[in-house]
Amino acid sequence: MNTQEQIQQIINNHEVVLFMKGTKQFPQCGFSGRAVQLLKAAGCNDFFDVNVLADQNLREGIKVFSDWPTIPQLYVRSEFIGGSDIMMEMFEAGELQQVLANQH
Description:
The chain is α+β, with helices and mostly antiparallel strands. The protein has a single domain, classed as Glutaredoxin (3-Layer(aba) Sandwich), CATH 3.40.30. Helices cover 49% and strands 16% of the residues. The chain has five helices and four strands, in the order H-E-H-E-H-E-E-H-H. It has helices at residues 3-13, 30-41, 56-66, 84-93, 95-101, and strands at residues 16-20, 48-51, 73-76, 79-82. The chain has a four-stranded mixed beta sheet with strand order 2-1-3-4, with helices on both faces. It is globular, with a radius of gyration of 13 Å. It starts with a helix and ends with a helix.
């Protein structure tokens, strides 16, 4: 399985996925830490985190997969939502909470 297939499988297997630097318990950059805080503030404590620092192929592959140059990246029900700036804008507008509230 190549990196793109691996990413697709992760996204397909989990409702909410955050590709990030570090883990949700121990974020390794400020943007990833903010993304974790935003998810929790929006009521989503049960999300799957992928530490891209642990796998260089995954780190580069996710940027190609989403056509988005930065990490973290949030996916909800296989749909790319965006990075921490977009997450912040959505949270402030109440949109992130709505997207996450539709979880099963």
